Every structure is written in C-alpha cells, then in structure tokens.
Amino acid sequence: RLHSAPERSIVLVGLMGAGKSTVGRRLAQRLRLPFVDSDEEIEQAAGLSVAEIFERYGEGHFRDGERRVIARLIEGRRKVIATGGGAFMNEETRALILDRATAIWLDADIGVLAGRVARRPGARPLLKGQDPKVALTALAEKRNPIYALAPIHVRSEPLPHSAAVEAILRALA
Ligand code: S3P
Fold this sequence. Notes:
Keywords: Amino-acid biosynthesis, Aromatic amino acid biosynthesis, ATP-binding, Cytoplasm, Kinase, Magnesium, Metal-binding, Nucleotide-binding, Transferase. Belongs to the shikimate kinase family. It is an enzyme of class 2 (transferase). This protein is an alpha/beta fold. The protein is built from 8 helices and 5 strands. The chain is about 55% helix and about 10% strand. It has a 5-stranded parallel beta sheet with strand order 2-3-1-4-5, with helices on both faces. Helix 3 packs across helix 4. The longest helix has 17 residues, at about 60-75. The structure holds shikimate-3-phosphate (S3P).
C-alpha cells in the first residue's frame, strides 16, 4: 500500500496523552529505525520547554517552529516521529505528513488521556488552568475529524502499549 511504503517515515499523531512518544519509541525499536519526538526537537533548538515557549513567545511562534522541525525530520532518513498533538492541525504540516510520510492516529478514551496528562502537570500549556477532561473533550471534538485523515487509526487502549505497537506493525505490513 502506498501509505506504508517502506521508505517513508512513520508519523504518530493524536491528542495529548495518547501515548505517541512511548509507543513511537517502542515502534522504532521494533523497526530498527531512529526515533524522534518533535516537541523534544523544538525544546532542544529553543533551549526552552514547550510550556516556556508558549509563555514567552505564544502559540503561533511554537507552531512555526513545529512546522519547520517536522518538515526537516520528514526530509531526512526514514524514522519514527512522534508529533505534538496540535502539529497535524496545521494545514501545511498536515499536507507534508500525508504527502511524504505514513501518518498513524493514536487514540484513546478521554478518561485515559486525562489520566496520562495528569502525570506531568504544567507540561501542557493548552490545558493550563482547566479541567483536563473538559479541555480534552473540546479538543477531541474539534480535532478528531482531522486526525481521522490519517490512513491508519490505532487505539492505544485498553491495550497495553506493547499491543498498540503490534497493532501498528500489523497495519503497516
Ligand atoms: C499540544 C500538544 C503537546 C505540545 C503542546 C501543544 C497540542 O504535545 O506540542 O503542548 O496542541 O495538542 P503532546 O501531544 O505530546 O502532549
């Protein structure tokens, strides 16, 4: 299938807490590919955390950096890329991912997402000062139809992460 052409990088998209980084890292190990997390790349380039970038320069600035980082990652050698939850919402970034990589929507119930983001309070500026369940429900409503444009959709629960990895490997085969 075209979307799983062996030379294409694999890009995980989906809401905060879906397990993109954890599942992505394990998937990369299984495929013997490098793993890169776009949020981490941006943080390294800026020398600031995602929360600090939002605070000092605003979301627009973060999105610009995110688009450039993802474009660069996709251009390079084949790898597994975990993206921040909003990356795929940017039309240009999304077009690039759909065009040049294999996009996988990793998805979970709101309660699971909320439980996972609660483990790193303060790390997600879009949830700042809000009930994570309420905020994530609103984001899911807006974003899920767009995540659904990814050719592969895997639910990361109730499966353990290892089973989500297996489900992705089957979908790619
Ligand atoms: C965001 C998700 C975050 C991070 C930023 C914005 C979003 O990444 O990029 O806080 O818009 O959903 P994770 O999905 O890895 O939490």
